[in-house]
Amino acid sequence: MEMFEVLKLSVTVSLPILLYWIYWRWRHRRMLELAALVPGPPALPILGNALMFMAHPEEQLLKIEELLSNYGQYVKFWLGSDLNICVKNPTDVKYLLTSNKVNQKGPLYDFMTTFIGRGILTGGPTWRLYRKIATPSYNKKSIKVFSEIFNQEAACLSKVLSDKDPEMTFDVYYDVVACTTQCVCQTLMGLSKEESENIKKLDEVIAETQSMYSLIFSKMTHWWLQIPLIYWLTGNKTKEKYFVKIVDEMTSDILQKRRSALQRETDTDDALGVVDRFILNGLPDEEIKLESFSLFTTSQEASAKIASAVLLFLAYLPEWQEKVHSEIIAVVGPHDEHITEEQLKKLNNLDMVYKEVLRYMSIGAMIQRTVEEEITINDGKITLPAGTSLVIPIHELHRDAQYWDEPYKVKPERFLPENSKNRDPNAFIPFSLGAMDCLGRIYATTLIKMLIVKVIRRVQLEADGRLEDLDLHIAISVKFANGYNLRARKRRPINGFTLQHG
Fold it and tell me: Which family is it part of (predicted)?
């Protein structure tokens, strides 16, 4: 009798699941038919390939790398009922990212909405409008206005580094992020220097940013943390509430400062920051705060990572540091004067190092889009069904030996014209492509290069060992696992001139 009851209970529980599975397969028969034409690992019923990705967060991209190695440039995997198709062919990557059939962010971006809402970065229903409002603050006219602040803050950073003990190894990121934060606050946030130094919770937010990113990535990659009860029991909900609180206090203070200032200021349109533009376009306060933090953190934190990596590359590559320094002296001069965008364009050696950093350490290691309409790729062999999550593995594309000679080595010379001419240009997409590409690519490039010029003109950087031996931490973006550690030594005067702070 007991066995009969157990059997009855088993049927009662499993039958609805089986019926739903059959119904789901019937309803999504077109997706299953098209998915069958894409290579990929065998998938379990209901779970799909989810068990394959039950690993530490830093190992997730290694799983993607393994799949691409085993199945080629097109591979599918199922995360439960979510079909993911990973594409690494440069021609199809460009086609997909610039298609109006693939113009929505993927479901992974939903995990960021707690902190930044459903706007520009996460691709919610308002992203086009909000991006259109914010774009003028990132164009060349605005950046020309902002370059005065970039120069001033970069000079402050160069002074800080020149005053370091030349025998002391330190993580340069912390000094760099202080600089980029001030630049962003005084430009995109629209604040004065004094206001930027007195924003509520700013230091706390900067200190906790990496922990915030880790929390988001852990929830993305650990399915059990997506169960509310487990998320709460593990203490992650408490952490999330704390992060949301300090971000809200910071952005509320910025918003209040700008609302008060706009009542008495008459800045030209080119000088307006994104916060001002959102206010003047009548966005609700909560939306302004979410979008402001989204653009704040993606500007100051990402720029700091890239700039720190450029400095570290130069510390490990003394011959390239000498090339960059000599070029700076030839183009800009030995004095610590204002650097212009025209001068930056002439610094070819710096540009090659900068691009190699972007290749070696992707800003976005992987991006995801949702396919809204069927779209055919791979010369007609593969059709991505509507509802598919498209995965573009930028980190793997930037290290594909088919397009990059010795991809795991650091070689800025790979960006010489003669070494680039036969390479598919779409094998290098550090800022993505299409309507949802990186809004701040020109802003960040100008800021980072000005910062590097000011620093290298004043100090000589040093580090021990080989750059390729440093461990990378690969999650939402790529960074050095143990920091950006180097030494800084004040340079000797050139032709009798000593660089002065200013």
Answer: Belongs to the cytochrome P450 family.
CA nearest 301: which of 144, 455, 188, 392? 188
**Cα separations (Å) of 412 from 122, 210, 310, 349?**
33, 28, 11, 8
Asked if 351 contacts 428 with a C-beta cutoff of 8 angstroms, the reply is no
Contact between 300 and 187 under an 8 Å Cβ cutoff? The reply is no
Q: Residue 343 in contact with residue 332, Cβ under 8 Å?
A: yes
Residues with Cβ < 8 Å from 290, sequence gap 6 or more?
A: 115, 116, 117, 119, 251
Q: What is the dihedral of CA 255, 436, 427, 303, to 10 degrees?
A: 0
Report which residue type is found at 309. Answer: A
Q: What single DSSP character describes residue 197? A: T
Q: Does this model's pTM top 0.85? A: yes
The predicted-structure confidence for 71-102, as pLDDT tens digits, reads as follows: 999 999 988 888 999 999 999 999 999 999 99
Distance from C-alpha of 336 to C-alpha of 458, rounded to nearest angstrom: 8
Residues near 451 by beta carbon (within 8 Å), at least 6 away in sequence: 150, 153, 154, 157, 176, 179, 180, 307
Which H or E element spans position 479? strand 478-480
pLDDT > 70: percent of the chain: 93
Q: How far is CA 59 from CA 65, 218, 221, 250, 361, in A?
A: 10, 12, 10, 33, 16
SS3 397: helix
Please count the other Cβ atoms lying within 10 Å of the Cβ belonging to residue 411.
18
Cα–Cα nearest to 97, from 475, 500, 442, 384: 384
Residues 6+ apart with CB under 8 A from 330: none
Closest CA to 428 of 418, 440, 448, 414: 414
> What is the layout of strands, in order, in the sheet containing 459-462?
170-171, 485-490, 459-462
Q: pLDDT (tens digit, 9 = 90+) per residue, 33-83?
A: 898 999 999 988 878 888 887 766 567 778 888 999 999 999 999 888 889
- Closest alpha carbon to 263 in 242, 280, 278, 275: 280
Residue with tokens 């020149």: 162
Output the DSSP codes for 306-345: HHHHHHHHHHH-HHHHHHHHHHHHHHT-SS-----HHHHH
| 340 touches 332 (CB < 8 A) | no
Element (H, E) at 84: strand 82-87
> What's the Cα-to-Cα distance from 117 to each of 145, 241, 286, 294, rounded to whole Å?
29, 15, 9, 8
> How far is C-alpha 486 from the chain's CA centre?
23
List the structure tokens of 86. Answer: 């990973």
Query: Average pLDDT, stretch 273-292?
Result: 95
What sections of 202-340 are H helices per DSSP? 202-221, 228-233, 236-262, 274-280, 285-316, 318-331
- Do the annotations mark residue 86 as ligand-binding? no
